Amino acid sequence: MFDFIRSHQRLMQLVLLILIFPSFALVGISGYTNYVSGDEDLVQVGDATITLQDFEAAQRNQTQQLQARMGAAFDPSVLETPQVRESLLESLIDRGVIIDTAQREHFSVSDTVLRRAISAIPELQVDGRFSPERYNEVLASMGISSRDFEQSQRSELALQRVLGPIAFTANVPATVEQYLSKALTAQRTVRLEVFDAANYEADIQVDEADIQAWYENNQEQLRVPEYVKADYLLLNEAAAMAAVASPTEQQLQDYYEQNKRRYVLPPRVQLSHILIQAGADASADEKQAARKKAEEIATRVAQQPEQFADIARESSEDIGSANQGGQLGWVTRGTLPPNLEQAVFSLDKGEVSGVVEGPDGFHVFLANDVQAERGETFEQAKAKVEAEVRRQLGAEQFADMASRLRDLAYDNPQSLEPAAQALGLEIKSASGIGADRLLAARQVKGNAASAGEDATLLEDPRVRRALFSNALMAEKQNSGVIEISPDTMLVVRVNEVVPSHIQPLEDVKEVIRQTLVRERAAQAAIKAGEAALQAYQNQADKAEAPEGFGTAQTISRSNPQGVNPEVLLAAFDVASGSLPAYTGVSGDSGYVVVRVESAEQGEANENLNVALQRELDMLWAQAEERAVLRELRKTVGVEMLPEAQNVVQEGLDDEDA
Fold first, then answer.
1. In contact, 479 and 234? CB cutoff 8 Å
2. How far, in Å, CA of 185 to CA of 608, rounded?
3. How many separate helices (H) and strands (E) can be counted in the chain?
4. Per-residue pLDDT tens for 148-187?
5. Which of 115, 229, 293, 627 is the most core-located residue (most Cβ within 10 A)?
């Protein structure tokens, strides 16, 4: 929320603030404290309150912003947690504190500062300069008057004065940056010996008693969350194409003729010409003189056609083509006046025409090359034509089926059967669809959605959201048409709700067996690794790396070379005064013995230092802002009212939302 306060040039963030805080944006700082809402208050901030309505507006806006950013991948459930609700309420409190402080301290901005700030907004500029026309256009599209916009902008600039100076003045001492830079670029040369748990699995024995004991002690790990078994209709391109009748021979022939240019290239001539100009306004004498000159040229080039380009450069009055030796390029029918076209397309390759009169004068043409009509006959293109006709008919069929599917699903809310029969669609079924994911096939008895061909469609958040809505869960009604993509639509219906439960032992025996094998193999690998580490540490001569270690590699915190973070930390925990030395790291996949052979200071990296200083300054500014806000809260006075805790923990009731 404070992105705008720190960077007021972002117009859309300004719009966001106006949407979330309409009372402040429209009436200004002085009017903010006059807004009260009785027993729906959540937090008292100074003399003002944050109300349930304020929280609802902020929550709606938060949802809309994420929905717009993430599209189909957006899952509202990520916002339905106490942590997210608490964070949102805290942000509203912070803003209330800032507003109260700005009011008490009488923060304001001059008209000059306001004009400068508005002029700097990129969305209001054209070619890098403020545009009044663009300004009016943007405000009109947003439905905001210039008075309201400028008042809200003035208010935001006033608020910026509360925390803004902190970001501009925060600076981490250079000694801190230098210390961290040294720590990041310090190097260790290491060798690793890996005791992989997978190598110990073959020797692990697990009996029925082991499985039974693990099952009794770890049942919550085997709990399957509530899920639904669903029926659904899928309308996609394939379903629409299946409903399309085969096109007739006449339909294919008609389509071929209507789109012949796609299958057949018309005849064309690669042409050069010499033009003697005599336009429509030329007198009879001028035309006669031009014709005579053209005839003389025609006679000349007829005798010496190989000299056509030179004669065109010398004599043609079409300046554009004369410089190119008269070349006009390839010409197809329909591009020249009829009499010129007739003359041109009667020429053979290398043939020169006589004088041909055109609208702009008299031409002499040379056919440099001639290509007859070429391409595919109807029979040759028939398969391609049929595919295109079927695709076109399929698109029309899809649009018709989509419209009918919407109506049929709505008119028959308790069953998919009428829509399936009317449209020739198969009613499909899938199980194991949870509110937040598709369950693994091993957690579901038969027909698991996660293992089906439509898994990607059923995992779409919009599908899961529809299935777990009240209407579908309680009433077993059809959903509306869910458009996954322009050519893929679903209608879903809950067939059965399966409550959360612990899987029976018989269903999870193999899973438990594999779990125990992995756990015990990891323990065996760790035991072997620790024994090896002890032996290496007790060696009198550590100069040579024992057999089993990999090649030496030099690592640093800024360039770990793919080394596991735990191994990296362990290597740098080894004291550099007595190397080589050994340490070890255990994990679920086994054990790693680390041989640290040398330690060196890294080389200074100017680019890293600049980026590090910038990052440290930003983090320090954020920390200082939080500290200032904590103190401002004490000064202003913030009291959490009983309803606030209810909203954070339980969310909004449906009737509130």
1. no
2. 9
3. 25, 21
4. 888 888 888 888 888 888 878 888 888 888 888 888 889 9
5. 229
